[in-house]
Amino acid sequence: MKERKKNKKKIKMLHIFLVLAVLYVSWIFIKTQIDISRLEKQEMVLNKKVTELKKTEKRLVEEQKNAGSIEYIEKVAREELKMVKSNEIIYIDSNKTNKKQ
User: Fold this and answer.
1) Domain ranges of the chain
2) What's the Cα-to-Cα distance from 91 to each of 75, 81, 83, 97, rounded to whole Å?
């Protein structure tokens, strides 16, 4: 009788241990999957940033190559400094200025 109780107790302990082990392994698996998913999303965001930065770098290298040219200097003077040639007339569209306000 005592042996049966000991065997049943051992079997119960073994079952409890196995259930706990399965729960622990499942928890680790789920946690790992969540981490992998989060890292994949982060990788996608970083890859987008890298692509955008490469485009910006390419544009800046082109601007640097053209920085000494007359055309580039004229473009910057017209667009950023609002300069015009001596024989040019500037027309301002009043509809555009009204829409901005």
Assistant:
1) 2-85
2) 18, 16, 13, 12
